[in-house]
Fold each of these.
Amino acid sequence: MMRLSHLVTAILLLCLASASAQEVSFSTKGGFYKEPFELTLSCNQHDKVIHYTTNGNRPTADDPVYQAPLLLNENLYSRSDIYTIQNCPDDLWFQPESVKKCIVIRAAAFDDAGNRVGQVTTQSYFIKSMGCDTHGLPVVSICSDSLDLFDYELGIFVPGASFDPANPGETGNYYLSGREWERPTNFEFYELDNTGVNQQAGLRTHGGNGRKIPQKCVKLYAREEYGKKKFKHRFFESIADTSFKHLVLKPFIATWFVAGVNNHISNQIAAPLNLETLASRPIALYLNGEYWGIYYIHERPDERYLETHCHVDIDDINLIEGWRGNCEAGSNSSFLALYDYIANHDLAEPEAYAYVENHIDIDNFIDYQILEIFTANYDWPANNMRCWQEGDGKWRWIFFDGDICLIQKDFDAFANATYDGPSGYPASSRSTLFLRKLLENETFKVKFINRFNLLLHTSFAYETTGRFHDQIFEALEGEIPNQAARFNIPESVPIWERHMRGIDEFLSERKGFVEAQMHDYFLHDDYRLTVEALYPSPAQTEIHIQMKLDKIALTDIQIFDLTGRLYYSQSCAFGTEETEVTIPIHLPSGVYVLRIGDKARKFVVVN
């Protein structure tokens, strides 16, 4: 006798096969096309009727019956005009005169009684000759029933029944969270060659301010109940992963700054560092066939992300958000215990520092702090902190949400990161405790300063970061007029260009401000310096210096040739223990002078 579980499985497979057999087929799949063409719909069950929609809603028996090939022209544009529905507080609302549109066809098979008997099939078409041009950006099309998005009681994109006029900044349907506020959607992603994904998914609003702004921030969930467990595509060239459980669509205006690129560039600066970072990529978004502006598709910093990137057991992850230890996954007990230990011990003592080293990935923590300081993140450290551990392993930090980075080039982020006053934002004494206490330890302080100096001359150098600015400028330049027309942010292309120049100035000048602030925070003049060893290697692009001081201090290191030409300059920290500093430089053959503080030494390079 067949076991019950086997019988259930067999029935499910038969149901799936039946649904698949009755699924509507499209003669041409969605994507980018140059000119209009005729689209043919068909179903294997010839006694079934095909109904279809063009406004993004799932078809019902009341919708038009497919009878002949559809000519994909302006007649098939959605007439719903959902862009006229106010989806935010009054002070943020902007309604354009019109919006660009693509053609969306959603179709399904129905029996004679008007019952849908197969899955809804969705395809979106972006026809360039009809003005549907994304100017080199890949495209995402999201299709959901309009009631799921805009209904007063149930819609997740509107202020709705949950909105309180007395508290417009934190209320509204779009602020409601959890599975109850997840809505089914169809998600299509197309590269310029029409490769990509097309599948059902779950849709929720996401973030803080990203929920209430008109260009909503959303999360996408792949679930078996929608048809597929993962989104399978290589969305990001910077990483090899091709399978994702969750994705985020973050809008251009989420940064609250007109350039709209702050978070994306910050992610790229973070990528080579020793911390978990999020890949991101600009796209153009269409919602139910209507243009919804420039977005970034990127990863979500949750336990699924850690499972994929760090190859850890998802059931053994402790994930913390915020310095009060809010638990996103697993348990927060070990984080709170570590916080209590650091708060109540002198980390200048070797035993206490050794304890913290056993519980924190020090190199990761240093890179995390340095990145936030260099990018001048004004929404940190009191906000936007996530760290994680596997089992009882070392805690590591994740960089995410650089929306308010790269703004103020002279921002004293050292003072912000070590703040110990009564204010709660953007820094608080609780959020700076770890760094303040660790900087009391000489070993940590030397490591921190020297790592910062190294990054200022490598990953943070304008020769590197300036390219990130130029690449995203080129990627978005053609699409900015459409974004401006849709949401009035930016108000114009010249205004966007001016703000982009501001970010370029930040990247080119930030190093000088950081070095000056570092000197103010760490510099000591009354020290004695001993150079223990110097060994340039002709086979490498590095110079190694071993030295120590009678107290911890920050001093300048410079390299000149015999004509006085300066080849290299940076500040380094040294302490009472012998310390080695690596200078990443390749010198031509010749004689050079190394100056450290008030000491000088000649050395020879032979290539």
Note: The chain has a mean pLDDT of 91.
Amino acid sequence: MRGGFAGRMMKENPEEAYSLRNLNRSHLGLLLHYLKPYGFHLAAAVAAMVTATAATLTAPYLTKIAIDDYIIARDLQGLQWIALLIIGVYALLWGAFFLQSYVSGWIGQRVVAAVREDLYRHLQRLDMGFFHRRKTGDIMARVTHDVNGLEEMVTGGFVHLLSDFFTFVGLVTVMLWLHWPLALVSCITIPFILSAMKFLGKRMRRAYADVQRRLAAMNADVEESLAGIRVVQALNREAVNTGRFSRLSWQNLKANLRAVSFFALLFPTMNVSRVLGESLVLLYGGWQVVEGTITLGVLMAFLAYVRRLFQPLADLSQVYNTYQSAGASLERIHQYFQLQPSITEPENPRQPEQGFRGSLAFDHVSFSYGTEPVLKDVSFRLEAGQTAAIVGPTGAGKTTLINLAARLYDPEQGSVSMDGIDIRDISLNTLRRTIALVSQQPYLFPGTVADNIRFAQPEASDAEVRRAARIVQADGFITQLPQGYDTAVGEEGVTLSGGQKQLLALARAVLVDPRILLLDEATSNLDAHTEHLIQKALEEIMADRTGIIIAHRFATLKRADHIFVLDQGEIADQGSHAQLQRRNALYRELFARQNQPAV
């Protein structure tokens, strides 16, 4: 591998090096890295938490003083002061809780936004093989649902965990100080609670991981069904798709119910343990009051402390549930961050001093998407300014060939070079501006016609956009649109015909002014009139440019300097149209099939 995401990020932004070095260590380490810039704010939240803990410990003890020193002594004035002091403690508790919650939420929102942005940036850099292997719905689930799943954990998980821990330790310490035998009685049920949390926790983690998988499968099904809604309705597949989605939805529901059932067991366990603990304190503590060993104030303080003692444990169960759910999401996000793109920036990019002229060569190139080879030992060379046409039956490897030329994939064997330089040694930014690809099914983004033409060249002026449109013969239909170049194209260009979308894709490529232009059946969806215009435009488009054209329409191939016949991943023959007509049976068959009269 010639590089990687981590290496590039460390080079581009040294401050990011820490997180990306730790990606291979722990998915929890990834989250801690995102928290690192907010150390001051975390400290403020912890300070607020400590204040809240101190107030929580103080209030019951003030109640003990009120009973033993003032109520029993009938000292109303002292009782008034204690009451005011208790009110002040609870006011301080309110302010501390507010500050803790606000700062935690402030941190959480920023961490979640940063994770989502970095994950999206990372996905943009992954190679086409990644998107070929994974469903769009699953990818979307990780960027949206899984990242959102971190919010509750980051927003309050860590601070609440610390708060509950210190509160629990403080309560036990104060109770032991007041009366250690009664404190030990109060803690009898705690080992049972911890065992239950450990037992249920493992099952909750597996259950939440299953929930995430089921949700991703459901999202993928929705995305695929909506993307192909025209085909679905045209072939009357609505009922079939609805049935499949219902099954996926039911599986997701069962996974959620299983996770909820484990979580639901925690609260009854906590409540039963709390009531049992209070009952033991009341029984033993009441006996101690009767015996005169402790005062009534101590017993009342203990009852208040016991109620608070189980609250941190209840909160810990909630945090534990949040951790199980968020942990499953974090693990799925971490899996994506660990993926390294196979298409990487070269460590030492190369470029001719005079710039690229545009010669292109395949040298013994082989490639496969799986076990079956798609291209086998392909070699050819195009000089700068020459045009090659690739013909062959479906599945011959034509699209794969130009994908390799555009470096959307890297060959498994051999090399693709431009002006004698392996394209893997050319910076991706330079390569993308030197080689442009127009695919058979061009994609238009939501926005205006002009936005789509200048997509790869955002700084292009309106005049440059119109010039590119005129070159590809698109200006005529654009000016007839309701708002001309400012007309919105809709989702995926739904307001335009297939031919119009291809014309805009051609204009987009021309605007970049590449030295090499790759056309993957870019005229296949054009009507006869538009195709005639495109044939004229190609003369200007291809002037002084190197080009590879894949086309089933042989009229497109007339101006090609070389025609290559590709069959089963190999170059079966090459030559001019007349030469191939004479000596190549496959070429004659393809030509005859293209030119047979319609019936």
Note: The CA atoms of residues 67 and 323 lie 41 Å apart.
Amino acid sequence: MTVYVFGHRNPDTDAICSAIAYADLLRRTTRPDAVAACCGPPNARTEFALEKAGVEQPRIMMDVRPEIEDVSCRDVVTACDEDVFFEVYQRMSQHKLRAIPILSRQGHLTGILSLPDLLELVFHVDDHDPIHSRQVHSSLEKICSAVGGQYQNQVEIDRRETMIVMVGAMSSGGFTERLHRYPAEQLLVVSGDRPTIQVPALEHSVRGLVVTGGYQLSPGLLRLAEANNVTVINSPHDTATTVLRIKSARSIDSAILRDFITVSNKQLVEEARPTIQRARQFMFPVLDDEGRLVGVLSKSDVNNPPKPQLILVDHNEFTQAVAGAENADILEVLDHHRLGGTLRSQQPIRFINEPVGSTCTLVARQFRAAGITPQPEIALCMASGIISDTLFLRSPTTTDVDRDALAWLSQIWSGNLEEFAQEFFEIGSALRTCSSGQVVLEDCKEFTEHGRRFSISQIEEIGFDLFWKRKDELQTALQELTTNRRLDFSALMITDIATNSSMLLMSREPDGWDEINYPRVDRHLYELAGIVSRKKQLLPLIARILDSAKPSTLIRS
């Protein structure tokens, strides 16, 4: 089963690069099925880093809750709406199926056929309409195949039509009298080696004559059959067996259920389950967005779908994890943030949480502990995460462990990290390339402190010139984010890499905010000299302010 290595929502470079690198290490050690994933597309800087390293972007997955395609059977056995009983019954018996999807000749789903409805074709007896039980809608070609017979004469054997089966088991006089009750072109006469039955049938120009017991028509009677356009089939079986096999050549068309329920392969299992459980169908066709049959599903398939297996990197809270993570099996956590308190697991898990500047530092340490040297492209990938999260070792979150890890990675990647870091920070300004709504979602994380839910987004820029031009629209976008997510407030931290300082823009301030002790330069805007770390500097500051405020106080607009 695939294990997905995920960074947090609205992923930054460290989240994506640590997922890629750790998935690579797992594939080389204990989990060859490890796949790096992320909750959204990488930002411009991360794209630059991955392109420079020559590493593929992780798989984008916005939700890990099981979909119908995850639990359906994709090896689908089907039947055609032009098939007959014995063909479909043999197929269903071979594969032990209770129901089967029916396709048209063009491959379009037209219905489903259950085993009880299929058996009704042969074994149903209608006391009110005795003719109905002797009617067979099929072709002479299908009938010959059903009885395992051979032709002595063929006339339009592939034409589909409704035939009335008449067994020549009575006297010739009684047979001839009954023969004239029905249209000759609909009659299929079944007889052993009895010329007294065969002659009147051939003279009456019946649609077909089935000679049982392995017998054949004499040359004279065969010429009569040819003259009157009568198809002649030789059956190797006795009359009773032959008649039963003829009935098994009935077309399945009348037994097909045309009013049935289908499910989309992309529908969540938990959403589809109520409809599936209430339905009376045995089997549910699974369709893709183009309406093509891609699988089948039974009721039992949706009862206990397999849980996805996840490894979380660069976060440890469900509020920051991919949607559906709370119902997944969390196998490991590799992180350098505070403990959020929302993570739970049913089994013991490996949990690595260290006060370092980057999750990629922890992944690099895992490589070294395993005695494995990463490929140069993976080394640059990890270096990118460290450079991004520590502002190239200038952030107060930087530790000697980060410095040592970056030095080790620089020996593996042959390029110049100084030049790479300069290019990395110069490219992909969010303020230059993104809408205001996208900017406030850039590296956005939600927190809960002292009963207050809020978000902090962070972007890195070179200088504040672009920020001043867009300040008002960014403040509006923050207010919309607060409203849409029902938060108490939202903050945007704009960090100037050149001066190691930040501006803090708020949607609104909570009570007690006067204790921030940093200069207010405009409405909802504060200058944070020397503050560059959301994790180590800004979040603890906000937590202290909220702690000092009275629980009953309100948010200031």
Note: The radius of gyration is 38 Å.
